[in-house]
C-alpha cells in the first residue's frame, strides 16, 4: 500500500490546486479509487474509476472514465461579432506559390434604416480585405442589421455589390455548444439589389 499513500498524497495536492472539484474516495474492500473529476494535461475527465492491481504492487489500472468534451459559448461569440471592435489577419502561401493576406474586421455602427425593408435597427460593420502578392483585392464591406435585445439578425447589406439579404427565424444560439456541432442559424433571402422592389435571387438556410 506504499503506492496508495503516495498516490493519495498526490491527489490531495491536486485538490488543493483546484484540479479536482470533489474529494476522491478509496474503497478498501473492492480496491477501487473513485475520482469525481480529474484533469490530465488539457483533457478533463469525470467519474474516474481506478482499480488497485495488487496491494503489494505500486500500480493502479484505469477501469472507467468519462471524457468531457470542450464547449464554446456561441451566443457570446456572436454578440461580440455584432457589438465589439475586432480584427483578425491571416497570411499564407498558396499552392500556386502566391502570397495571400486576409483581414477580417468588425465594429459597431450607428443605427440606420435597412435599405431593403426601411425599418431602422442596430448595425454592425464587417469588412473583409485581401491581398495577393501584396496587391489589394476590392474590399468587401457589409452592414449587418440586428435586434439589439436578442442579437437576432434581420438583414444584411453588401455595400460592395449593392445587394441586400433579409434574415428570419433561427433558434437562440447555445451558450455551451460542443466543438464541431452544427445547427440551423437563420433563414436567408438574397435579392438582386437593395430596394423594397428588388427581385428575389435565392433563398437558403444558414447553419
The major beta sheet can be summarized as: 9 strands, antiparallel
The helix/strand series, from N terminus to C terminus, equals: HEEEEEHEEEEEEEEEE
Q: State the helical fraction.
A: 10-25%
What is the residue-averaged pLDDT? Answer: 84
**How big a fraction of the residues is strand?**
over 45%
Radius of gyration: 27 Å
Give the structural class. Answer: mainly beta
What is the 3D form? elongated
Q: Between the first and last Cα atoms, what is the distance in angstroms? A: 55 Å
Taking pLDDT < 50 over at least 5 consecutive residues as the criterion, the unreliable ranges are 1-21
Number of strands: 15
Please, how many helices?
2
In total, how many domains does the architecture comprise?
2
Description:
- It is built from two helices and 15 strands.
- It is mostly beta strands and 207 residues long.
- The protein has two domains: 2-67, no CATH class; 72-206, no CATH class.
- The strands form three sheets. Strands 6, 7, 8, 9, 10, 11, 12, 14 and 15 form a nine-stranded antiparallel sheet that branches. A four-stranded antiparallel sheet has the order 1-2-3-4, with no helix packed on it.
Amino acid at each position: 500500500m506504499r503506492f496508495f499513500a503516495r498516490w493519495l498524497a498526490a491527489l490531495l495536492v491536486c485538490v488543493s490546486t483546484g484540479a479536482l472539484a470533489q474529494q476522491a474516495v478509496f474503497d478498501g474492500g473492492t480496491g477501487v479509487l473513485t475520482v469525481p473529476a480529474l484533469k490530465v494535461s488539457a483533457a478533463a475527465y469525470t467519474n474516474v474509476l481506478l482499480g488497485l492491481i495488487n496491494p503489494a504492487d505500486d500500480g493502479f489500472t484505469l477501469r472507467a472514465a468519462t471524457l468531457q468534451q470542450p464547449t464554446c459559448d456561441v451566443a457570446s461569440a456572436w454578440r461580440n461579432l455584432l457589438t465589439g471592435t475586432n480584427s483578425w489577419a491571416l497570411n499564407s502561401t498558396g499552392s500556386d506559390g502566391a502570397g495571400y493576406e486576409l483581414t477580417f474586421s468588425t465594429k459597431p455602427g450607428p443605427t440606420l434604416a435597412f435599405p431593403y425593408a426601411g425599418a431602422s435597427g442596430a448595425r454592425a460593420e464587417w469588412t473583409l480585405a485581401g491581398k495577393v502578392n501584396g496587391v489589394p483585392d476590392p474590399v468587401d464591406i457589409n452592414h449587418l442589421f440586428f435586434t439589439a435585445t436578442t442579437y437576432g439578425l434581420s438583414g444584411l447589406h453588401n455595400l460592395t455589390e449593392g445587394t441586400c439579404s433579409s434574415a428570419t427565424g433561427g433558434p437562440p444560439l447555445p451558450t455551451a455548444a460542443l466543438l464541431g456541432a452544427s445547427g440551423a442559424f437563420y433563414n436567408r433571402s438574397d435579392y438582386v439589389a437593395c430596394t423594397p422592389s428588388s427581385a428575389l435571387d435565392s433563398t437558403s438556410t444558414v447553419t
